[in-house]
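Regression test attached.
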Amino acid sequence: MIKKLVGLGLASIAAMLFASTASAQGVTKDEILIGGFGPITGPAAYIGLGGRDGLTMAIKEINAAGGVNGRKFRLIFEDDGHSPTRALGAVKKLIDQDKVFMIFCAAGSNATVGTIDYIKAQQRVMYVSFASAPAVTFPFSSYLFRGATTEVPRYGELYSEFIAEGLKAKKVAVMNGREEYPKNEGNALATALKDVYKVDVAARAEFNIGDKDFTPQLLAVKNSGAEVVAFFGNPAEAAIAMRQARELGLKQKFFVGATMVDKSFTLAAKENAEGATGFSLIPFLPGTPNPTLQAWEAKWKKEYPNLPVGRPNVFDVMAYTDMYVLAEAIKRAGPDLNTKSLIAGLEQIKNFSSSPLAAPITFTNKHHIGNLTLTVMEVKGGNWQPVGWKPSRPSEILKRYE
Amino acid sequence: MTITIALQLLIAGLSVGSIYALVALALVIPFKASSILNFAQGELVTVGAYAALVLTALALPYWVVLPVTILIGFVVGLFIERAMIRRIMAAPEFTLVIATFAIGLIIKSAIRLYWQDNLFTIDNPLPFGSFRVAGVVLNPQYLWVIFCTTMLVVCLAWFFKFNPLGKAMRAVSQSQEAARLMGVSVERVLMISWGISSAIGALGGILLAPIIGINPEVGHLVLKALVAAVIGGFTSLPGAVVGGLLLGLIETYSGAFFGSTAKNILPFVVLVVFLLVRPYGLFGRAPLVRI
């Protein structure tokens, strides 16, 4: 009998140990292995390069300060080339081959959507820093968290309110790229404008990544009589389109998607960017004369002395601050770190800002949309500057999670 | 569609087409001389754009940057031919094409090592902005590209018709063996043809930089240039120009009438249909075989 009980006890301990080890892939007593991916080549490299470097710098700082609960972070970062298939390949490699504990997604929406089903099937946590694709947080999944960026319907709410109430536009033209992020944001805006504010979407024009000429789309916009042109794409396309718009005599104000509210856009579009408006995901953009930001930029430049004009960009800041959110959650998860305790740790994050550079992040066990606070900016004198406009309409997107 | 819009689209189509024409010209020259299709041509455009970026950063005026960039392109072309192409000339054509593809990847990766994929631009070199003629907006930067392409075609036509080196290139393109027997240094001719082609690519790079920006993917438009060259007949210089302009017009008008999806599909549909009707392109001729 005693032998049986001892045997049963040993079996239970072994099972518990096995379970703990199985769920704590990538975690040792002194290290947490994180897999990161994002586009460091291709048309959206401005996203992934910033993501990778911001993330790396935060990890270096956290490790230098002793790590979290006695463990230091190690990052393996893969390039997804802004492609969903390459992103899936990268995530499979990170989880199956490199045996990482969790994934930090520094990719755009286009690539991110390719990985979601696999992440859910593998039951690994993926912390998404930039992608606004709806599928990340809706329908709800315990394993997917959205950090610095927000969900597409929230963009739709804010964009439409600002254009209808802030810019007082009655007719709007929407130009968007055909890939995931610009298409989603263009659709969300058009729907909210029509349904909520009864604003006429006078023209919808699409384009492809890498297009060099926007004359047909701009002529359609011009003939529509729209008072505001909402543009969703990459800075390279926006720079050409806005130059051509001015050449073709379009006097309308341009509103751009949150991805372009960054130096990469103002540097590429130059004087044609003047007067453009858009929402920033962080309170201060690189280049703003804010002491905290300037101190951070000085630190960044010391870390990356040879990088070109335009960096650090908004993605450096978002990945950097999101890594601190993640570190805080891991700290709250306690010494027994596994997927379950990490989810519990993340869901304890409430109105958390790692520094004044970051928007406050909140996760609950009902929704994993971290950031619902965005700031309106306008290009003045070649730089993005806060406008001071605040939304007054309460957000309704959390209702669907109740 | 009003007349003004139709004319505006015409100008836009010709402007984009002139870019394709320029790169197509650079593809055709080494092909005429050596029958090698240079898949690194797009990256040679990229080299020109980055050379212009570096020289502009040194605060050199555009009129100095322009010839120095072309010279850099010429030297890069000579180097590629001397260091690699000449050594594998005896290999099958397919191997040579893949080798040029590899050269392109090496160039692109080397650029990424320093500049990564960040987007850069250089200022409009012309001292005036866009202007209107009869309600149609003209961008001087595009006019500058069209002017340079036209001058280039004129210069190349003169070069191939009257210059001894140009004549030697034509001879080499007809028969390397016969040219050699006539005292032509085939190796020298091939090396210079690569230099010229690369210099044209670099010219394309500096002309495009203020219009479409600079990043390692600038050379991606070589695919469109290939289509232009095939439509033109691939061995014909005027054919490359006409093919480029035609492609630009098809893209622009199909985009205006049928949307952005058609803009990407229709040029290739036209290419396939065109080749079914004229397999040797607009200005190409079927090789004559004496029986």
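Expected vs. actual: identical. The radius of gyration of chain A is 22 Å.
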